[in-house]
Design brief:
The protein has helices at 3-7, 14-35, 43-50, 54-60, 64-89, 94-109, 113-125, 130-147, 160-181, 189-211. By secondary structure, it is mostly helical. It is elongated, with a radius of gyration of 21 Å. The chain has 10 helices and no strands. The chain has 2 domains: 1-61, Arc Repressor Mutant, subunit A (Orthogonal Bundle); 71-211, Tetracycline Repressor, domain 2, CATH 1.10.357. Helix 6 (94-109) packs across helix 10. Residues 19-79 form the HTH tetR-type domain. Residues 42-61 bind DNA. One of its GO terms (molecular function) is DNA binding. This is TetR/AcrR family transcriptional regulator.
Length: 212
């Protein structure tokens, strides 16, 4: 057998096949983590979902914790990308920009409940994801601070009062979406987004109060 034949199989070289296996494991991780939770995501379960041999799991991930982290980061990247694209394309008015971002978040986290569960629920309970959840909350608060500069009345995005206000807004929004995801809050999507938009706009009033 030639070297080229040994390297290629079904039209893919070794690197492409490894990448394909990793993608399948990520899809399995999304399904299990987002449906049955972190405790259900074992190596055995991931292999059962993909039909791969055990050695191929460890080819891509050192542990199930590492798979959890990779899945979380993949979903978070989708959320962040959607939020930034919404901000870039929305009109410059604050209400329109906030509403566009909220719609983008709902599209990712509520339209696919698995993704919402991973970011809003499992990240709270999983030791592997807990620190990442806090980092993510800080990043989203930073995005809010960066793009809502008109509400900060000349304060820098990293000023203490701005950070507190942004973090409070992001935390409240996340808890509200988690309640919707759990079926404990039944609201039409547009009504939900409208309510959250007004509440986020209201943080400007609160910010004025704590900085005056």
């Amino acid at each position: 057998m030639s070297t080229d034949t040994a390297r290629d199989y079904a039209g893919q070289d070794a690197a492409a096949r490894a990448s394909s296996r990793r993608t399948r494991l990520l899809a399995a991780g999304l399904e299990v983590l987002g449906t049955d939770g972190a405790t259900a995501l074992t190596v055995r379960r991931a292999l059962a979902e993909t039909g791969l041999a055990p050695r191929y799991f460890y080819e891509s991930f050192a542990s199930t914790d590492a798979l959890q982290v990779a899945v979380f980061e993949q979903v978070l990247a989708e959320v962040e990308d959607g939020a930034r694209r919404a901000l870039e394309s929305a009109p410059r008015r604050a209400r329109a920009r906030i509403r566009a971002v909220l719609l983008a978040l709902c599209e990712v986290l509520l339209d696919d409940p698995r993704k919402g569960r991973i970011v809003l629920v499992e990240a709270v309970a999983s030791p592997a994801l807990g620190p990442l959840r806090l980092d993510a909350a800080e990043r989203f608060a930073g995005v809010l601070a960066e793009f809502a500069t008109g509400a900060w009345r000349g304060h820098a995005p990293d000023a203490g009062a701005v950070v507190v206000t942004s973090q409070f807004a992001v935390g409240g929004m996340a808890e509200t979406l988690a309640r919707v995801l759990a079926g404990r809050l039944d609201l039409d999507r547009d009504v939900l987004v409208d309510h959250l938009t007004e509440l986020l706009l209201g943080t400007g009033v609160a910010f004025k109060a704590i900085t005056s």
